[in-house]
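WP5 quarterly update. Target: HTH tetR-type domain-containing protein. Source organism: Pediococcus argentinicus. Length: 194 aa.
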Amino acid sequence: MGYPVKPLKRTQRDLVEAMVNLLRKEPFEKITIDDVCDEALVHRSTFYRYYHNKYELLESMLEYTAYIFFVEKGELEDDRSFVTQLIKMISQEPIIFQNLTINNEFFDSYSQLLDIVSQIILKGITNQHEHDDLSHFPLFHSLANSKNVNLSVHIFSGAILTIFMEWIKLDNSNEQTLTDMIDNLMHEFPPLCD
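C-alpha cells (predicted):
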C-alpha cells in the first residue's frame, strides 16, 4: 500500500528537513524563508524554484513526513494500523505539532493546517493510481463515498487536529493518552470509522 506523495528532489528534502529542524525550536509564524534557507544552506532563489511560500513547504513537509511514517516505518493494513501510525508520528515529536498550532500568537495555523491535512487526505482518497489509494481503508472509503467528500474530509481532519491540540495541552501527555482520545472519537463516530 502506498501513500500519496510526489518524490522529493534532494534540495526539496533539504528544505523539508530544515523546516522540521526549525519547528523543533520555534513556532511556525516566526520561521522565515531566510531561516529555512540558512538552515538548508541554500539561496532564496533555490527555495523559490520549488515553493512559492512557506505554506507550500509546510504542505510538502507534512506529506513527506506522513509518507515516511505510513509507508517506510509500518505496514498499513486497516484503520487501526493507520491510526496507530498517526499517533506514533505525533507523539514522537509533539513540540513540532505544538509549534504548528498552539505556540503561535498571531498565525491562524489551525485553519491553514486543516486545509493542508484535508488536501493530503483528498489526494489520497481520490488518486487514480492503485499504489497511492487510501480509499481501501474503511474509514477513508466512507469519506470518499460521502455525499459531500470535501466537507466530510474537513470534518474528519478537524476532529483529528482538535484531538492532537487538546492532547498537547495536557500536562501528562503520552502516547496512551492520545490513543485513548482517538479511540473515544472512533467510538463516538462509528459510521465514519467502521
